[in-house]
Write a structure and sequence with these properties.
single chain; alpha/beta; Rossmann fold; 7-stranded parallel sheet; two-stranded parallel ribbon; 49% helix; 15% strand; binds NADP nicotinamide-adenine-dinucleotide phosphate
Length: 268
């Protein structure tokens, strides 16, 4: 069972951060849509279990590719592999994490890891698949940014900054690939039920109202419907969040500052 088998006639999708949360859901829904899968994350056991499950359920090839994408060797080896495969139809840059606390108190290594994972890895992987997609005049690249990409908040300095990079990276790339048959998307979800907040030991029942939570199923469905249906470059799942982003983009800086002081501790 290997997606590197060029004999497969199914299109190939690569999902980073596939072992949990949104990445797991992307993998599931892409398998439903008939894609072979290359599943990437650090937890090899979870990836293999998911690959076997999806292969059995949907009759696709699914391969686990365990890698730490915050490490130079992890991201570069995968990028080389994708380039050599030359048949990636969908790339989902999804792997990511958040941290809790002000920059001055956080370990510098952890913050550097975030920049490698959120900035360098998506850039290298996108660069690896892009020429093949342009040549074949077909391909989709989705990078999972966040509603946080539209704001800046204390305790979230590098998270907001790296998510803004991801969104702007996709927006600018969309202009470059216009007319080539390649579509790119910056997916900007708000609070979504995954392992993201648990990994930060944030109590999800405190401070974030229940109406604010989205399901991974819904976020991924809106993303893929847009990606395969000529949707916008920036996809913000849920009407409420589209309203939040509209307000963030148009409110004066001083009002935004006041709101950040008051609500800025929430992480999305
Ligand atoms: N949940 C939300 O509220 C929310 C809102 C907006 C945006 N997002 C974004 O959505 C994306 C997915 O997060 P999620 O909510 O699905 O969180 P999650 O459930 O914690 O999943 C994160 C995934 O990233 C993988 N990952 C983390 N570090 C990695 C590394 N160094 N190398 C390779 N893979 C790594 C994890 O797998 P391993 O541990 O096995 O490596 C896991 O598969 C992130 O980019 C996040 O910023 C989330």
């Amino acid at each position: 069972m290997t997606t590197t088998n060029p004999a497969s006639l199914r299109p190939l999708a690569v999902v980073t951060g596939a072992s949990a949360g949104l990445g797991r859901e992307f993998s599931r829904q892409l398998a439903e849509r008939g894609f072979d899968l290359l599943l990437v994350a650090r937890d090899a056991d979870r990836l293999r279990a998911l690959a076997d499950e999806l292969a059995l359920q949907h009759g696709v090839h699914a391969e686990a590719w365990p890698a730490d994408l915050s490490r130079d060797d992890g991201m570069r080896t995968l990028a080389e592999h994708l380039k050599a495969l030359d048949r990636v139809m969908v790339l989902v840059n999804n792997a990511g994490f958040g941290t809790k606390g002000k920059l001055a108190t956080r370990p510098v290594g952890e913050q550097a890891t975030m920049l490698e994972l959120h900035v360098m890895a998506p850039m290298l992987l996108t660069r690896a698949v892009l020429p093949g997609m342009i040549e074949r005049r077909e391909g989709r690249i989705i990078t999972v940014a966040s509603v946080a990409s539209f704001t800046a908040s204390p305790g979230n300095v590098n998270y907001c900054a790296t998510k803004a990079y991801q969104r702007v990276f996709m927006e600018a790339l969309a202009m470059e690939v216009a007319g080539t048959g390649v579509q790119v998307q910056a997916l900007c979800p708000g609070f979504t039920h995954t392992e993201f907040h648990d990994r930060m030991q944030i109590d999800k029942t405190k401070g974030i109202p229940s109406w604010a939570w989205l399901t991974a199923d819904r976020v991924v469905r809106e993303s893929l419907d847009a990606a395969f249906g000529d949707g916008p470059v920036v996809v913000i799942p849920g009407k409420r969040y589209r309203g939040v982003v509209f307000a963030l983009r148009h409110m004066p800086m001083w009002v935004r500052g006041l709101m950040q002081e008051r609500y800025g501790r929430a992480r999305i």
